[in-house]
């Protein structure tokens, strides 16, 4: 964080927030808890107001009750303080609105009149099919001005063409400098820590390339299944839902060159270079280096769970993937020849997001030949849960009878125990704070979204040509056996020290 960022951190900015989709799942589970926590931390200006917009006919009092109920469900009881809650609820107002017609949008302009000097932030917590309509109606109703910002959720489209269409619609009303595209992984504390780890520590900065790193592993494993979103998910699949955005953003943060500074565009320029350098799959590499899976019924934590095709809302046979593993490469000078193994899936045994950087072995090995497989350092970056960083190093096994036996052990930084008083904020807290302050470095620029789609579209097209059904895996396993074979064929294995 540069000096300008640091000094503006202390002062909260006053904004008016118009929240479209104010009674939806995202608002209730993520946005109100995040705003409440910001208020509790003293990070919301006293004058900040929130206007909830949705189609149900509620008045402000009934809306506040809905929000209070959402907070009671999604904020820990110990963190719900009466005074903060009262202050937060008093910020809220509500208007009933159908987002598809311009009629009614004047209500936003009228609500704005009271706080016209504050920038308006428009948060679109609705499906992307509504983004264009809402932006146009906001403009036509005279609700916007030169300082208004818009926040949009993923997924932006279904492929490159649809994403370009949506981006055009938003871009027809808001300039890129006032569009905040959320990828909530960028708001996670440990994901931001990747920037600090890489660029604040010369120890890693000098080693971060193909001369010293043999391969990189990224695992984003989920225990949950489809969570009532079968209709959406079946159209998307795990590649579009997770890889196109979250996993490729992680690849970017690991692989990018140092930005000249921490400005949004300096960082985003470097990420775009990584996306452009991602190797496309050939027909041969597709069969060898990519595994798609779909879960069948199984057991997680001792409880039976249904298969993907038996989940609530499942209404057809489907070959949509719920798991993807692949070996890819960032084809540039820094990373040529270094495989990036990535995998993500639903209904896996753990909720775990982890990056493992495998360093190369020493050029000449002098210890016990039986221990050769130990002989490389690993940097394990745990994004969730139990956020932390561990560097696996080799030391001498102690004891008179051990000779020069090696022992592998971690130099471990566990954020929760190292900094016990620091609550690790939810990603949406950080992201909302950045929007309020008008800083874009944690948001995704249009060209990032589009380069990521271009690469994914190529992969999806090749899958279609191949015409193979996904491999089945039992819920509660680590995915199809082929995903293990994919990495063992290179003489490696997925890091398993969970
Ligand atoms: N939920 C999550 O965890 C995540 C969501 N997202 C994204 O966030 C966005 C919102 O998702 P989510 O909250 O789950 O969706 P929901 O369907 O739960 O919420 C959408 C809200 O918008 C309202 N709405 C829809 N159409 C209209 C309309 N024409 N006029 C007025 N109100 C309307 C709905 O009202 P009604 O109830 O009356 O239909 C509902 O309150 C989506 O883009 C999604 O992809 C991204 C990441 C995670
Ligand atoms: O964007 C999404 O992310 C969640 C996983 O997020 P996490 O913060 O819990 O790791 C995923 O379940 C969902 O399908 C996807 O749309």
Which parts are unreliable, with pLDDT below 50 for 5 consecutive residues or more?
1-11
Distance N terminus to C terminus?
31 Å
Mean pLDDT: 92
Assess the beta-strand content as a share of residues: 15-25%
Any idea what the shape is?
globular
Biggest sheet descriptor: 9 strands, mixed
In helices, the fraction of residues equals 25-40%
Q: Ligands in the structure?
A: NADPH dihydro-nicotinamide-adenine-dinucleotide phosphate, the ligand O=C1O[C@H](COP(=O)(O)O)[C@@H](O)[C@H](O)[C@H]1O
- Strand segment count: 17
Family: Belongs to the glucose-6-phosphate dehydrogenase family.
GO cellular component, one term: cytosol
Active site: 246
EC number: 1.1.1.49
Word description of this protein:
This protein has 498 residues and is an alpha/beta fold. The chain has two domains: 3-153, Rossmann fold; 186-422 and 445-488, Dihydrodipicolinate Reductase, domain 2 (2-Layer Sandwich). The protein contains 16 helices and 17 strands. The strands form three sheets. The chain has a nine-stranded mixed β-sheet with strand order 16-15-14-13-7-12-11-8-17, with helices on both faces. The protein starts with a helix and ends in a 10-residue tail after the last helix. The model is unreliable at 1-11 (pLDDT under 50). Bound molecules: NADPH dihydro-nicotinamide-adenine-dinucleotide phosphate (NDP) and the ligand O=C1O[C@H](COP(=O)(O)O)[C@@H](O)[C@H](O)[C@H]1O. Ligand LXAUTJHC binds next to loops. NADP(+) binds at residues 55, 98-99, 154. Its EC number is 1.1.1.49. It comes from Billgrantia gudaonensis.
